[in-house]
């Protein structure tokens, strides 16, 4: 095993981890505000992959050929449409059940997840769909068969994820809506008394979560080139794990958890066994939760009596 | 008057209850089981399309001796547990007389035990794992080949035709994929070749970059993959993207046009080969079936044809024995051959197709499969 192989595995792990992190942000935001896991999140990500591909096809149809323009407009359009899905899910599956038991919205979210899967399967078919390669080529460091490469697409993923996280951090920390989010998170009732429209805030959290999933979905679609109606399942589980690992409810935690999970998977697969990489990753999660029950960057919740 | 009409309506409803079972007895029920939802739904769709195309044809021309065929769909999502539930439903509730299915070997194996106990003729269009017919179940037949045959052919292809001996074996931890790879491993070891890598990937994932880097560091010159298209496509693409100079060889699951999109275009399929039944579309014996599919406006996908052939097998056995018992139908299938959408099929006592031939295919510049020699 030479250094090039190790470096390549690190690159593989970080790119994969960044994607996990982006999707994990959606879980973490929703949990942070309403203390509820949005089990339809993986399928929102899947829907966004389809929207991205359809947008690309439409852009091609109208003769837009410039790749940067296509990529940016696809990202924006996908975020908006997926955001509407996020809003609708909250309206249909969460809001009517807000006053009921904690388990009810969980079940309705699983219902939405199944519904989205079947809806896409029926409307788009069960086959693997593909998109043409938009950006080809790679930076290569090294010579002959010994090199480390970062494809241009992987670079785009890293940059886009950084930008998305930057925007999100800014929104949460420095804008009015972000302040209201944090207030709702701390105490929904008091915030409502103080004039925060908490229903609207919860809606917007779902929209923001869906939009980050859309960034992930678009990037993954153009990176791996193929997708089907079932991709949300595995990605949802992995991203959820990343969110728990980093401390659910914490934004930087989601990204850190994602990158850690990606690196663990890549290194274990590369040096030990691909068969058992998930077993190893999840065992690691369990051990970590023994020592830090709220994840790496999570804060313990004070139970008020 | 009102009272009379109420009475009349009640009688009509009551008598219709008696009419329904009477009608039902005049149909022949065939169950079709496969992954209609889930990650492999595309295959279930193909099988269902093929079976219903043939059944519609038979029904339109008057059915079997005037009896219409009724199809019952069963969704196992390629999960063994669900497959058993489907099998029990077919037997207890739907009371089917024969089954086309299941699709995945991992589903067919447990479900066929139930069919065998209840004497239901079962024809799988696609389960290639040896265990499917090796357990001595009389009712079990298949229209496809066997993985151990496929593995022997694949071993000879890699070692003798491609002349490569640094082989990485990758499977998807499922009965079909791992069974195929394990059989190939045995074949290679008999020839004194030890694989440089033996790994299983997780179904449903898209990122195999870590595995590809590992294949590279193992110095493999050939990769054999046992698995299905959702994983094969990204794997091929990532091998290409990381600039590995390897030949990619796989099994009959790749015999689908969607491999071109899944792998990111025909340019990525340059060094890709797969084994499959000799292309049924080129066999003159299948002209009738092709014409029928064309008339019904159905794409002749690989498993559509095998589903069609499986339905033909069952109908032929029922017709050939003049709706005889299952024992008669089994004896008939062993003694006769069926002219099907995948060529002429005849069976040995195990239920395997006699002289099933695997042929290797490569891809041309447009991504269409061409025989490779």
TrEMBL record, chain A:
Keywords attached to this entry: Amino-acid transport, Cell inner membrane, Cell membrane, Membrane, Transmembrane, Transmembrane helix, Transport
Signal peptide feature range: none
Topology of this chain in the membrane: Multi-pass membrane protein
Superkingdom per UniProt: Bacteria
CDD domains linked: TM_PBP1_LivH_like
InterPro entries found in the cross-reference section: ABC_transp_permease, BCAA_transport_permease
Subcellular location: Cell membrane
Residues passing through the membrane, by range: 19-37, 44-63, 69-89, 101-120, 150-172, 201-221, 279-297
One matching Pfam family: BPD_transp_2
Family affiliation: Belongs to the binding-protein-dependent transport system permease family. LivHM subfamily.
PANTHER family: BRANCHED-CHAIN AMINO ACID TRANSPORT SYSTEM PERMEASE PROTEIN LIVH, HIGH-AFFINITY BRANCHED-CHAIN AMINO ACID TRANSPORT SYSTEM PERMEASE PROTEIN LIVH
Protein name listed in UniProt: Branched-chain amino acid ABC transporter permease LivH
Species name: Shinella lacus
UniProtKB/TrEMBL annotation, chain B:
Domain Leucine-binding protein stretches: 27-350
InterPro entries from the UniProt entry: Leu-bd, Leu_Ile_Val-bd, Peripla_BP_I
Secretion signal, residue range per the UniProt entry: 1-24
Domain of life: Bacteria
Keyword terms, alphabetized: Amino-acid transport, Signal, Transport
Alphabetical list of Pfam families matching this protein: Peripla_BP_6 (PF13458)
Keyword Membrane: no
Family indicated by similarity: Belongs to the leucine-binding protein family.
Identification of the protein by name: ABC transporter substrate-binding protein
Native organism: Shinella lacus
